[in-house]
Write the structure tokens for this entry.
Amino acid sequence: MEFTINQIAGMLAGEVKGKGDDKISMLAKIQDAKQGQISFLSNPKYEQYIYTTQASAVIVSKEFVARKEITATLILVDDPYISFTRLLEEYHKLVSFQKSGVEQPSFMAENSTIGKDFYRGAFSYIGSNARIGDNVKIYPHAFIGDNVVIGDNTIIHSGVKIYPDTRIGNNCVIHYGTVIGSDGFGFAPQHDGTYKTIPQLGTVIIEDNVAIGGNTVIDCATLFGDATIIRKGVKLDNLIQIAHNVEVGQNTVIAAQTGISGSTKIGENCILAGQVGIAGHLVIANNTGLGAQAGISKSIKEPGQRLMGSPAYEFGEYFKSYAVFKRLPDIQQRLRELEAKMQNAKSNSLPVD
Amino acid sequence: MEFTINQIAGMLAGEVKGKGDDKISMLAKIQDAKQGQISFLSNPKYEQYIYTTQASAVIVSKEFVARKEITATLILVDDPYISFTRLLEEYHKLVSFQKSGVEQPSFMAENSTIGKDFYRGAFSYIGSNARIGDNVKIYPHAFIGDNVVIGDNTIIHSGVKIYPDTRIGNNCVIHYGTVIGSDGFGFAPQHDGTYKTIPQLGTVIIEDNVAIGGNTVIDCATLFGDATIIRKGVKLDNLIQIAHNVEVGQNTVIAAQTGISGSTKIGENCILAGQVGIAGHLVIANNTGLGAQAGISKSIKEPGQRLMGSPAYEFGEYFKSYAVFKRLPDIQQRLRELEAKMQNAKSNSLPVD
Amino acid sequence: MEFTINQIAGMLAGEVKGKGDDKISMLAKIQDAKQGQISFLSNPKYEQYIYTTQASAVIVSKEFVARKEITATLILVDDPYISFTRLLEEYHKLVSFQKSGVEQPSFMAENSTIGKDFYRGAFSYIGSNARIGDNVKIYPHAFIGDNVVIGDNTIIHSGVKIYPDTRIGNNCVIHYGTVIGSDGFGFAPQHDGTYKTIPQLGTVIIEDNVAIGGNTVIDCATLFGDATIIRKGVKLDNLIQIAHNVEVGQNTVIAAQTGISGSTKIGENCILAGQVGIAGHLVIANNTGLGAQAGISKSIKEPGQRLMGSPAYEFGEYFKSYAVFKRLPDIQQRLRELEAKMQNAKSNSLPVD
């Protein structure tokens, strides 16, 4: 599959500067690209490579001013990074092996329905009364429980397990091994020291355009009619824990191994780094940023803060304290010396008293 | 499915105050409940809702004294929370789709046995010489290795993987994607810098009434005859790591993403919050409580402590230190000022020396 | 299956001291071993047991000098621990049920190939154009995507999911539920607050002699031609997160629940404890040791360091600071007292000024 540079520029609404008829067959990083490949320059620290790259074409900003000669053909655009990701996306659609049809053996209950242009991999399982939209890809070993509803263009990868009654929107991607709708961690302590399991009867709702990584777990809500909710546009990484009755606000991004305890409500457009832990029954304001390994034990009411530490507080303040923490043995020593001097001073002045 | 309030009260050994013949078809939270639904009041901070709820019935404590008029019918019991969870449980049994029989294709070795009233989902796998009790539900894609023993009334959810020789008790629930019996992390360093794998030949024993969340991993013990042991009544959340030769004492509860290193022995009735890390070869006393993200590097000998921090120590002491940590830049500044003053004082007094 | 002590000593190139014709049928720990079993003594703190053990044979160091009478037959070797692990390994090969052949139903695309002496479990899936070597064991519910290449003697356990285009070497073991090649967590922020998914088009390369635990996730690289790389001899534990474009150097060992962010390069022979978090785009020098729960936010340039804390720094220094941290309330109090004394001193001396 090959395209001319002019064809690519047309797709990106960019302007060609150089040989627009040259052919492109592959995308690559600017420092590695070879003839016949296209790359991009966005971060100024890679500027040096544009003068030496063997790429046939480079996507650059309209604002870019070359300081030396460039042999590659340029495609000038507003935002080279966004243009390149768009290109990647189109390319991916074209080259990825488009799975379709049914591989056998697979299992689908008779009273369930699936729209057109679907793929159902071998050993995939669809329970009773499921309603699945158009162009949905269900990979091998995926488990879709009874009464699950899935929108259009959603991809359920291999080994994903979706409990009964879950609702998933359009254009979602759920990666291998992720579990959606498992029982929340609810146990009522009994007088004899044992715990009684509180049945978890709620569901999970995943809205449109949500991406979820591998081996993540999202628990269902506890009571009938309640749902753990992942709002539209949310991106969850691998190995994340989302407990029962949590709500994650739209366009919030959560990195790997973060855990959110029961009934906590995360705002919109938040960015949570990896290994963050958030206690239960909290409310986290919109646009909150949490540093890696932060621990959150209280609600965050003011939007737009960046927090760090466990328990977490303002990012810069945390690092100031931590800088002093590293000098604590010295500080303790200086305190001892001051105490000794003060003692001496007092002793010396004793006769005067 | 509907019950009268009198029927429900009978089941709970409660006393009806109001219209016992009204019908109930659903359970709900007191603030959300509608006509035909039943709710409960346990936490006093929700008392306001009992005066406005549209629930047809509310379960309350015998001790409850109303301060305003209540329209709902009341069921008076000793402990409303426990009664409500009991009701949830009964309801769950009734309404949950009772899977039974065999879905095809599924795999079970000829020399394995399973008791009565079982469910074996499509694509479930049972290896050689397994012994499985009555009323066991094995969901699609579950893997039961050779020689595994499972008691009665246990539920093995979709995608659970149980290695050969594991023993699981009665009334257990193991959620989607959890791995039981994988090789412990044992490698012997060699002189050339490589590692030789130490074969892991032990097993895992899970006693009765254990609940395990999704995508958790429990490693087998290292040597023949040894076992990693999860005692009766233990509740494990999602994404937990239990290393080889660990023992978790009965009725201990462990929240998500906590990790326990090899050969550590956790006592009974402990509560471990999320993302806790415990080093290897330790003994943790009964009734220990560990705060979220705590790191434990030494054995805990005295029972009943609550610990926090990494390395962890007494909860309240930790927070006192942390409060000062947040003021460290100020403390450093005050120390500098004292030093300067002392220096001045000394300089001023120099002529006197 | 039984061996004489002489046969075992021959295998280990050891010298027999005692009854070489006695029979051994099992391996066990020195404190638990019974007649007919063999054990070893390596750690001096277990020396007491050699005088009381009922083991028929004990493997000990050539240097070992008995202080009392020993009834067990001894096998003298250079390194008892290494000899015992070698024995465990041999024993494991002999007694473990050697799975082979194909269980049905299973799925393998027609244009894929697998070498001799293979096992393909029921419900295992091998996509198109896969190339799999000799003596490879693929357990039930394993998923091998299109174009995957696997070397000889590698074991793919139940429920492992390997994305298309992944390359795996010889003598690897991948435990249950692990995901290899899932999409990296790459999203380009858009002007309207949403994120656009950056297609992840790279692959994963796993070299020879790598062991990977259960429910771990390794993301693929972002661009064509790039790979997330796990070098030969690496040992990864359970529930680890390896992000896109990471490289883990040879013979590095990483404990459970550690997470490594995108594009970070870990050196050779490093040891990372559990729950460590490493930020993206860093370089970690060879032979680095990271303590449990350490957080790494900057590259580590000098090899051989041991670090602790979050952000992490030198191990011993961290613990010195932490010791003072625990006394911070006292230090604050002493500072206040000094300030008060200084204030008094000043007041007292005021008239003198």
User: Anything to note?
Assistant: The first helix of chain C runs from residue 5 to 12.
